[in-house]
Amino acid sequence: MSGISARRIPSVAEARAIQERLRSRLRVTGGPRRPRLVAGADLAYRADGSRAWAAVVLVSLPDGVVVETATAWHRPRFPYIPGYLSFREGPLLLAAFGRLERRPDLCLFDGQGIAHPRGVGLASHMGVLLDLPSVGCAKSRLVGKHDEPGAGRGDWAPLRLEGRTVGAVLRTRAGVRPIYVSPGHRIGLARAIECVLAVSRLRVPEPIRQAERVADELKRRDRRG
Q1: CA neighbor of 28 nearest in space, from 113, 111, 142
Q2: pLDDT at 48
Q3: Residue (of 39, 4, 88) closest to 207 by Cα position
Q4: How far is it, in rounded angstroms, from Cα 183 to Cα 195?
Q5: How far apart are CA 127 and CA 190, in angstroms?
Q6: How far, in Å, CA of 75 to CA of 219, rounded?
């Protein structure tokens, strides 16, 4: 049971149990050596939270060209609770991914992977359900401790939780704030860092940045309409 449904909304206790069951299905090793199609996913919300728009943008490598975009919108039903983002955003993301004509080699999410209180953040949950390599690329820390990485592009520091390395605090551009990269599913940390750097020219990886742009445009259209 995934707990991701637009029809039945789980309680917080049920959501927690679902995450704990999904954790046994995670594989955080390996990963695509030369991904050709990288998906970035993000959402935008109406100011009052009553509507959300999801966008998935597929970028080809090595040229960085956007080759496909898929979107979906809905009224979020699960409340915003830190650590349970996949139950709020998952139904929309799955709907958008379901509209892609091509299958990505790798998916990047604006959220956490295993750097999560129960080891199953948005990127991990979606990775298992989509059965695709996935990486969490968060702008802020949810769990763990770390030192400050070096100032150069590609410098990183381990993100540690209870004695384990669950991610990397990665500098994707020299002199800018780092992002929090954690494996989601079917990829290890070293490969995740490699892949994120390959699609980053600004702070946020380009596929996620493009998805953010599309979702924000849908939100602006709603305001104008």
Answers
A1: 113
A2: 87
A3: 39
A4: 11
A5: 17
A6: 13
Q: Are 73 and 225 a contacting pair, CB within 8 Å?
A: no
What is the reported pLDDT for 1?
47
CA distances for 57 relative to 3, 85, 97, 103, 142, angstroms: 25, 20, 9, 12, 25
Q: Which CATH code is given to the segment(s) 12-224?
A: 3.30.2170.10
81-100 pLDDT, tens digit each: 999 999 999 999 999 999 99
How many residues belong to the chain? 225
Domain boundaries, the chain: 12-224
Percent composition of the chain: helix, strand, coil (DSSP 3-state, to 5): 30, 25, 45
How far apart, in whole angstroms, are the C-alpha atoms of residue 22 and residue 129?
9
CA gap 204, 178 in Å, rounded:
9
